[in-house]
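Components:
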Amino acid sequence: MKDWPKNEWMDQWQALSRQYWNAFSDLTREAGNGAGRDAAAMPWHEGFEQWARMFGGPGKQSETVERVLASAKSFTAFAQSMIAAATAGNAGAAPNWAEVLRNGFKMPGADASLFSNPVAQALREISGQGVKSFEEMMQGLAPALDPAREAKSWLNVPAFGFLREHQEHYQKMAVALIEYQEQTRRYNALILKSSQRGFELFESKLAAREEPGRQIDSLRALYDLWVDAAEEAYAETALSPEFREVYGELVNAQMRVRSQIQQEVERIATDFGMPTRSELDSIGQRLHDLRREVRNGAGGQSSSLAREVESLRREVAALKAALKERTPAPAPKAAAAAPKPVKRKRSRPVAKERAQPVAALRADVKESVSAPVGAPPSREPKAAPPPRPRVTKGRAPVRAQRALPSPRAKKSVAKVAHSPTRVGHPVLSFAERMKAFARSAHKSHSTARRGGR
Amino acid sequence: MEPVKIEPTRALDEALKMQKKLAAGLKTLRELDDVGYGATDKEAIYREDKLVVYRFKGARKPTAKVPILIVYALVNRPYMVDLQSDRSLVGNLLAQGEDVYLIDWGYPDRADRWLTLDDYINGYIDRSVDAVARHTGLDRINLLGICQGGAFSLCYTSLHPDKVKNLITMVTPVDFHTPDNMLSHWMRGVDTDLFVDTLGNVPADLMNWCYLTLKPVRLNQQKYIGLVDILDDKGELENFLRMEKWIFDSPDQAGEAFRQFIKDFYQGNKLVKGGLRIGEGEVDLGNITMPVLNIFAEQDHLVPPSASRVLADHVGTKDYTQLAFKGGHIGIYVSGRAQREVPPAIHNWLAQRAG
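Structure:
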């Protein structure tokens, strides 16, 4: 390695920088943009702003382009600081690599709060299509949080008046927001701690490379070593009990804020007569439960029944076959004397079981149909008459068993449909309701007039 | 001796080379069309809601008599097992003579918010197994569970042992409380009920962010620096983009199933501690008495090997085989080594138990 005198390293460094920028300008011209600049002192990663302008924006792979550019920018800033340190080192002063690294992340134009905090920076950079952090999710809620911010000022004021509930709600939202901010602060403190620990580990990893043959001779190798150190430090922090507690609290705090906002949105939706998420969820849940019931009835039970029946069939067939093998062939005489098979009545348990609800339903319908208009409904459904065993095929005998309704009570289906008395629900006709309303209005009017005297 | 011996001119050269590659590559990158995936021809043999069971068609008829049904995780899309022709677990299994089926869960939406693990395991998986059994005319089939799908397969096999001939699990978490399991460590402080009640279905984008934050610098910065090296190689670039597409193409998670999975598996660790109920039945890994092949990745940051390895201590089978793959959670499907090692290992193991 060539050693330069101390007073020459700056010149050397500036020459290198100029060389870099000249080459970069050539590249940008080649890529179709002639906006190259020539300045030895310019930060190298600034060039990526030009790349971003040239290659960023909408495009088929724009997300990947942006991610590559962001990473290349960080790497170039890292590279520039390392080359500067290496050049200075050649002038005789051994650089403090961890300090150099720390300064390398102080990119002009970057968020100053992330200086010396590369892990936080890396976390911040995880964004784009297909990724959304808790922080971004929170940013999406920003407009809804204004009332909560205002509510902070009257957190301790007791709520009263007709807006009491709203005030209490905003107070709760403000408390949740303050809690979330506190948890975010705790989380960020841990990430900063992790970055600092990363620098320490980087130093110790570098120290292990002092042996001849293990020295680092390329920027990429140095960068990879730093990544190893940063990830190791991050894992130490992320697997600590403190991080688990803080991470959980951060997530829970944000969920509380979101929950409060959702409640507010529901309140507003209700006021405007809009369907709310709770209502949709409720319908969704009912529908899902119903589908499960149907599916379990149709698919689950019957398929297991079908399997059982199939297995029984196989068993019966096997038994029959075994029986056939054992039984000797009957003599013709004995066969003639064989008793006739006993005729057995077919039991119809299924029909019996079905008869009950059908009979109950018929009785229920009959009762509603036969109830006189305006009469109070019977709250207790009449017990269904016990089903009688069918003695003959066909439906006529069953019909014959039914008690015929009296001619006066019998109504046509059309009349039932338009009747104000529905099954189980007494509803007065419109005319009767108007009459009742007129009576009551007249009565109250008279009372008021009397009271007014 | 100084630990860093970087020649400034060489360093400058390195930085400039990177710039040159970027200049040439970014233009190419923007002009590339969307990359396709799914190399192997397939036919749907069963559909239900958003779920589809596919049968893959190989170049020749399968020689294996018992088919394999792949049960993938809910958290990613299953085309990872058939990403491209030269990186396909499915393709290589077919080439070995296996008959391969796969459950594609689809993308759950708000209508699927109430799906439970019972619906997934005793419902969807069971009916998919029945569909494959019907399609092949068999009573029992081979199950290959991957990651979360592996945990589901363990539950399913425990509850329906009569329907599974051989069980293969890949990168499957079993013990969720090993000290190196970062995801589990984080989830144990989260109020799951509040989380699901608030979010409903869990957004895939948030899940992706969580995965990337397991190694934030490596997965979000170093990986893209590495990409610069291959920017001038169109084939490699397409491979990268295909993988990138898979990483960010994730389904939302049905709220109720997520709730139970986090509470019972991540927080309660009930798969090994006991007390895990799926619907009416209790999961007992001791019921798994058929042959089991457990494959895990030694550098897996999502499912640490320690979380997988313990399966040996909990299953009831006497025929248990374990295979440690030198690679990571994704590399076990797409790396060159995986293509050479994993499908033949599965095929040979099954062939030995074909009788």
